[in-house]
Amino acid sequence: MKVVVLVVGKLKERYFRDAEAEYRKRLRPYCNLDVVEVKDDAALLAAVPARARLFVLDERGAAPTSTEFASMLETEQHHGGGAPVAFAIGGADGHSQAIRDRADKVLSFGQMTIAHRLVRLLLIEQIYRAFRIIRGEPYHRE
Questions:
Q1: Phi and psi, residue 66, nearest 5°
Q2: Which of these, 59, 55, 31, 29, lies nearest to 44 by C-alpha position?
Q3: Nearest CA to 8 among 93, 86, 85?
Q4: By CB count within 10 A, which of 15, 25, 52, 82 is most buried?
Q5: CATH number of 2-29+38-48+60-134: 1.10.760.10, 3.40.1790.10, 3.40.1280.10, 3.50.70.10?
Q6: What's the pLDDT tens digit per position in 90-126?
Q7: Which one is predicted more confidently, 85 or 92?
C-alpha cells in the first residue's frame, strides 16, 4: 500500500527528524511511505498523487479512535483499487478551502491546537499503530 504524507514546512529539529525516522523504519514492512515537504498550500494541493484518496488533518474534522482509523486504512487497502492514500498537514495557518474541498475525509486529533510538526509525528505513529491493529499484532491497547 502506498501512503503519502504531504506537509507544509520542514522538520528543523533533529529530535523530530529522529523520531520520524524511527517510525518510517517501523513502517517498512507494512507500506510504502513517502513524506513530501512543500512550501505552501498551493504546492500541497499540486503534490496530491493522481487518484489518491485524500485525508486532510484539520481541527474541524472527525476525531476517530485509533481502531476506527485502522479500519479506514484497512478499507482503503482492500477496496481502494491500488490508489494511494494521502494525508495533508497544513502549516501554521491550517488549510485553504481548496484543500478541504479536495478532501475525501477531514480528520482531527481533537479540538486542541497542535503544532503542525507534532501532528506530523502523531500521524505517522498512528499509521504505524493502524497497521499493527489491522494485522492483529501487539502494540495497541484498548
A1: -60, -40
A2: 55
A3: 93
A4: 52
A5: 3.40.1280.10
A6: 988 889 889 999 999 999 998 888 888 899 999 999 9
A7: 85
CA distance 142 to 121: 21
Dist. CA 49–CA 31, nearest whole Å: 16
- Output 18 or 141, whichever has higher pLDDT: 18
Name the DSSP class of 90. Answer: -
CA distances (Å), origin 18, targets 11, 13, 25, 42, 93: 10, 9, 11, 28, 25
Q: Is 80 exposed, middle or buried (0-12, 13-18, 19+ CB in 10 A)?
A: middle
Rg, C-alpha atoms of the chain = 14
Distance between CA atoms of 36 and 72, rounded to whole angstroms?
22
Compute the residue count for the chain.
142
